[in-house]
Amino acid sequence: MENEIKEYTVTIYTENQIGLLSQITNVFTRHGLSIWSLSAGATSMEGVHNITIVTCGLEKKVKESVQQIEKRVDVIKAFFYTADKIVYRELCLYKVPTLALLQHGDIEDLLNRYHARIVEMNKVFTVIQKTGYSDETARLHDELKPVGVLQFVRSGRIAVSRAEQEPVFKFLRKREMERKQQSNK
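Given the sequence above, the corresponding structure tokens read:
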């Protein structure tokens, strides 16, 4: 349905240039789209970086934003996906008081149920790491509340498409073939 508000994951492949992230977020603001999550990092291609943004809105607005972002010189290609077209996760860290955690009961069962693990433990605090979907990380947070969550931090979403090969590779290959054809003329 075209007039339905949905969650979208926007993946932008770029050169790593100063100020580009600000320009991209401004496009979302102008189209009235809130950014729920944002992550950026290097890809397997040298010199190519990936920005992943989660937003919620009408498909038309998201599509317009992606098209406008692609007009930027430093942007190689941008795509947008619904959840069924990607594999995605986020990372969370929970810092809880060690003594309260030990008194809570079966720590092992809790960690196993959520596929979480302890990454640091000392006399004062314990840091638990959980990778997964937002709803899973929220449920673990709720279960840790009685223990006392001292700190909680969640990363932005990271995602890959369900396509056999990332669409940007196809785009870059096609662009390279076109350049070779132009130079052979």
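The two ends are 46 Å apart (CA to CA). Try to locate this feature in the token string yourself.
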